[in-house]
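Let's do one together. I've listed all components of the complex below, 509 residues spread over two lines.
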Amino acid sequence: MEKALALENCSPGALRKLPADCRAVVIGSEFCSGLLPSPAEARALRRKSRGRIILATTLLTQAALEKVKELIKIINSGGPAEVVANDLGLLETLRAGRKAPPVSCGRILAHRVKIMPEAYARNFLARYRVAGFEVDDASIIKRLAPYGLPFSWHYPFRYATVTRFCPWENRWAAGCARSCLGRARKLVSPRVPGPLWLRGCAYFIPGQKPRRDAARNVYTPPAETNEA
Amino acid sequence: MKTVVGVKTYDEAATMLRLGADELYGGLAAVPNHRLPAQSFQTMDEIKAAVKLTRKLGRRFSLLVNQPSFGAKSRKTLAVARELDEAGLGACIVREIPMLESLAALGLKARLTVSSLALCFNLPAMRRYKQLGASRVVLPFQLLPGEAAPLIKNRYGLETEVFFHADFCCANIDPACRLWNLTHRDQTCRFSYKGPGGRWRMPEANAREKMRAVYGFYHSGARYLKIIRMNDFSEELEVFKFARIVDKLLAKGQSEEEFARLGEKLYFTVSRHARSAWKKR
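Okay, and this is what the predicted structure of the assembly comes out as:
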């Protein structure tokens, strides 16, 4: 079982803190394209790490898709790479590419795949050469089991919802200033079981533990500042 | 812009057509769609009559197939689409790809529209939907005008439709939202939360930002404006009236700033629905 660290921040300072035994890192975000690293940050990481670099991506506007294409080129040269896709357009783009890295079906997209008729889903996954799933919800594992693909388990948070109207900057996410970096906000309602944690543009439920049956456990470290 | 208006009864359809709606859309309670059954036509006979009336007036009625359906329900959906197609159905609004392919395989006269819930955010996704037989895409709620412009100007011959954001926009990306699974309650996004600074709500665009979105979509070339279905038809009439005024303002060629200012004022004076929605916030 592989362990991976989800890097919220790909800056040189953050890279210096990367553990030496870290074999796989996840960069970018499945929930906000504003958290994609810059090409320079991705290049710096590729130079530093011979391990696997996994680029997580969310739903992608045309501009964000162009940026992701550039990032894939960078991480895919000089070491092993993977892409987590949540967007049909990205899957189509990767399908057309000759040297595309292995692609995993992201957490948003997995909820669409799980409701497909089984035979249809098999064709869908084959069409896009999907090599695995990203999962943070135990109930979905059974639903995806018939496809026999490995899954990466995300902990200690499970995503609950996601927005493109930035809750940190109180405006549409276009023109993101990354003011969420290093921050998490706890939200409590008596009508919701347990607290929600806001990180980036998504809200999460805490409490997940690593799983032995996962091909990879992806750990998201706590934020530097927890606003509770 | 042409207005595309949601209806749930024959009378509502007749009223909206009389008031000048360019297109109508609606669901049938027996066919899974993205609203409560009460917001859909209750019987096949009634929706069929609405389809026929719309057709007779040379306008288009679209059937909502924008919720996943399985097994027998899926077969039922296809049977309904086929029957309404014979009555003059204009289009099916579809969310999931397998259903889109199944409907395309039926060889209906009705066209296929990709629902906003399909989350078509970019050109390669759009091209794929075109290959699958779609002729129109409803752009996702949270895609902004500047981001949507390449899609609106696409080379694939696909029409694009946008929601009337001035009246409504989800706080979160609707089809990617799992909050219902957490609480089993609607609109968990609108609950009041306790946060570090006191009371906290999941933020969404304010009235002026919504008006700017409408302005941006218009100037990006969007030509179909969609008005959501509502429980209270009198509220929907208010929103329809609001949309028509907004459309006239846009056609006058006002600056974005002036349009946003006037639109915001209208938002709180013309639309009773907007006022009540704002009070709930």
